[in-house]
Amino acid sequence: MSKPLNEEIFIEFKSDLAERKNEVLLQVLELLETFRSDKNEKMARISSELTEILENEENLEKILNAKNLEELLNILIALNEDKMIKVYEDSYLKEKFPNVMVDKFLK
Q: InterPro entries given for it (predicted)?
């Protein structure tokens, strides 16, 4: 039994978890950023949870047609009935998602 090896694996696993974007809001914003970007070279990575939501085309249309952040949050809350949604500061969202977080979307 190699204790240092086990610790290395745990540290790597722990950092991988920290880097993952499990939050539905961030995933949806990344998806919207990809759609609204001029560059079609990157793809959005989404979780199985969001994939399940987006299987229904109506849900995708609601998300794509959200006029502002509040409306998007209301849609996500309705689609994730029993789950909490983490909300971030406007400045963080503007930095991470410049194509989505224009002034009219933040109102």
A: PTrfase/Anion_transptr
Map out the domains of the chain as residue ranges: 22-36+43-94
What SS3 class is residue 3? helix
Q: Could you tell me which of 73, 71, 22 has the C-alpha nearest to residue 49?
A: 22
Place of tokens 């249309």: 61
**Considering only CA atoms, which of 36, 31, 47, 106 is closest in space to residue 80?**
47
| Strand, coil or helix: 80 | coil
Q: DSSP letter for 82, please.
A: T
What is the Cα 39 distance to its own chain's centre? 19
Q: 19 exposed, middle or buried (CB, 10 Å; 0-12, 13-18, 19+)?
A: exposed
pLDDT for 33-53, tens place per residue?
Answer: 888 887 766 677 788 888 999
Do you know the residue count of the chain? 107
Structure pTM? 0.72
